[in-house]
Write a structure and sequence with these properties.
- It is a single chain.
- With about 375 residues, the protein is of the alpha/beta class.
- It folds into two domains: about 110 residues, Aspartate Aminotransferase, domain 1 (Alpha-Beta Complex), CATH 3.90.1150.10; about 240 residues, Aspartate Aminotransferase, domain 2 (3-Layer(aba) Sandwich), CATH 3.40.640.
- It is about 40% helix and about 15% strand.
- The longest helix has 16 residues.
- The N and C termini lie far apart (about 45 Å).
- The mean pLDDT is about 95.
- Bound molecules: 4'-deoxy-4'-aminopyridoxal-5'-phosphate and glutamine (GLN).
- The site of 4'-deoxy-4'-aminopyridoxal-5'-phosphate has 14 residues, from helix 4.
Length: about 375
């Protein structure tokens, strides 16, 4: 039979985590914390289990969690999403992204993807029969930025969807309100939809604001906003996320969602809903991760790695061209095997070949882990 995804193999995250394990390397590759979540969150889920929250929740998600999200989004961003018709709980952001794309992209539709892009976007577009149209971010002295003039030039009558991701994996860049206004100028008077991946919404540093798509009324009216509790609450293995969108878009989303997972883990949803009543954990997240970012950056300052800016996410990209002329995949493999620190080659986030020497480190690690990694990296 012919493969539906002939070019797809194992993801780079799995590959590098396996190599890190085999080589006993410090794993700064795949993005996940090496510390545990708040015990209060575990207690909240365990209480839900003990209280009989163990059968199917509604297809759209446990109501207390949809309510908690609606209240939180309104408080943070000033936009009301109706918990009954405009919020759905998903099996992480990955399933949310796939189901959004499956629900709105028809065969032959074009989807604009800004590279580097998270590795699930393009296979999802291809499964829907869509055509990814790539625009590359530019790297200047201030870091990576989205070239809106090129996004505008990439629009055709077949453009169905534009995907954005802020804070951005892997570059750590954060869209400004001027960026969001540029996007609004591009889609005004078209029927193009927006898919906004905001899984790192609470990891924004240096006093910057997370410019959620829902803060812009004109864009919110045509946008799916996706996020994941895995990042915010240090539980990437729980695989619970959500989508918020206007009712008409959400109705289409739910048609796909109900036949891809129907619904997701009941006790985790109730546990998260009750834990969310306290805003402190997400309000404290920027300071928590900014300190780790600075610890990691300070440790690399005297090395031969050139630090690129990181204003959000838990990722730090570095340019290694002063160290090696190997390509990014070779360099990441060498760093893992010979130096004992795993990283992700940024080439994994591009479909289009390019000349660059950049790898990504994840700093969502205990200080002792970061210090061990820095000790090894300082010898490179
Ligand atoms: N989007 C981006 C940009 C990500 O970095 C991730 C992280 N894994 C995801 C989506 C997927 O999130 P989840 O683990 O909740 O499926
Ligand atoms: N989002 C995580 C990262 O970028 C990995 C997710 C995964 O393993 N699929 O590292």
């Amino acid at each position: 039979f012919s493969s539906k995804l002939p070019k797809i193999g194992t993801t780079i995250f799995t590959t590098m985590s396996l190599l890190a394990e085999e080589k006993k390397a410090v794993n700064l590759g795949q993005g996940f914390p090496d510390f545990d979540c708040d015990p209060a969150l575990i207690n909240a889920v365990s209480d839900a289990m003990k209280n009989g929250m163990n059968q199917y929740p509604p297809m759209s998600g446990a109501l207390p969690l949809r309510l908690a999200l609606s209240n939180k989004i309104e408080k943070l961003h000033g936009r009301h999403y109706n918990p009954a018709s405009e919020i759905t709980i998903t099996a992480g952001a990955t399933q949310a992204l796939l189901a959004v794309i499956m629900s709105v992209v028809h065969a032959g539709d074009e989807v604009i993807v800004i590279e580097p892009a998270f590795d699930s976007y393009v296979p999802a577009i291809e499964l829907a029969g869509g055509k990814p149209v790539f625009v590359q971010m530019t790297l200047g002295a201030d870091g990576y930025s989205a070239p809106w003039d090129q996004v505008a030039a990439a629009v055709t009558p077949r453009t169905r969807l534009i995907m954005i991701n802020t804070p951005h994996n892997p570059t750590g860049s954060v869209l400004s309100s001027a960026d969001i206004n540029s996007l609004a100028d591009i889609v005004r008077n078209t029927d193009i939809l927006i898919l906004s991946d905001e899984v790192y919404e609470h990891m924004v540093y240096d006093g910057l604001t997370h410019e959620s798509i829902c803060r812009h009324p004109e864009l919110a009216a045509r946008a799916f906003m996706v996020s994941s509790f895995g990042k915010t609450y240090h539980v990437t293995g729980w695989k619970i996320g959500f989508v918020a969108a206007p009712a008409a878009l959400m109705a289409e989303f739910r048609k796909v969602h109900q036949f891809s997972v129907f619904s997701v883990n009941t006790p985790a949803q109730h546990g998260i809903a009750s834990y969310m009543q306290n805003p402190a954990p997400y309000l404290e997240l920027p300071a928590f991760y900014q300190r780790k970012r600075d610890l990691f950056r300070d440790g690399l300052k005297s090395s031969r790695f050139k630090l690129l800016p990181s204003s959000g996410t838990y990722f730090q990209c570095v340019d290694y061209s002063a160290i090696s002329s190997s390509n990014e995949a070779e360099f990441a493999t060498w760093l893992t095997s010979e130096i004992g620190v795993a990283a992700i080659p940024v080439s994994a986030f591009y479909a289009t070949p390019r000349e660059s020497s950049i790898v990504r480190f994840c700093f969502a690690k205990q200080d002792t882990t970061l210090q061990q990694a820095l000790q090894r990296l300082s010898k490179v």
